[in-house]
Design brief:
Keywords: Signal
Protein name: DUF5626 domain-containing protein
Domain DUF5626: 34-152
Distance between the termini: 45 Å
Shape: globular
Largest sheet: 6 strands, mixed
CATH topology: Immunoglobulin-like
InterPro entries: DUF5626 (IPR040491)
Radius of gyration: 19 Å
Number of domains: 1
CATH architecture: Sandwich
CATH class: Mainly Beta
Helix content: 10-25%
Signal peptide: 1-24
Strand content: over 45%
Structural class: mainly beta
Length: 154
């Protein structure tokens, strides 16, 4: 009984020292989707904390008479046990012409904010403000076109 009271006492005292909001961001890692290869390409990596990150880039079937690099792609990411997010981009002549249909699901915690932006004609970013308790973390899925590749940074 004394141990239980001690643990609760320590937890309570630690909560007194937390003031305000904590901001943290993930270390950026990048995977590369080969536009010439196309199709669906999957990447599984892990962050510095050892949590698995699963990235999938999927070419949306369509007919393009001008270039193999024209078309639509679905960008999706899953941070195991925390969240899943996806969005679509339209690519024309190795530029991103549109970013649309964002979707985010919190597995644990919740999202305090989400925003899909077309940063330039070469880059689209899905910003994810993920919250667990009183702590807020900034995550993102960023797609960038670079010489025949679509890089996804998270």
């Amino acid at each position: 009984m004394k141990k239980i009271l001690l643990v609760f006492g320590l937890l309570f005292s630690f909560s007194l020292f937390k003031t305000g909001e904590v901001q943290a961001s993930e270390v950026a890692d990048t995977v590369y989707y080969d536009l010439k290869k196309g199709g669906t390409q999957e990447f599984i990596t892990s962050d510095p904390e050892g949590r698995t990150m699963h990235i999938v880039v999927e070419e949306i079937p369509g007919i393009s008479l001008f270039s193999l690099n024209n078309g639509s792609y679905r960008i999706s990411g899953k941070k195991t046990g925390l969240w899943e997010a996806s969005y679509y981009i339209s690519v024309t002549n190795e530029t991103i012409s549109r970013a649309y249909s964002p979707n985010a699901i919190a597995i644990t915690g919740s999202f305090s904010s989400t925003y899909l932006g077309l940063d330039s004609n070469k880059q689209a970013t899905y910003y994810l403000g993920w919250k667990m308790g009183i702590l807020n973390y900034n995550h993102y899925l960023r797609a960038t076109i670079r010489s025949g590749f679509l890089s996804v940074t998270y």
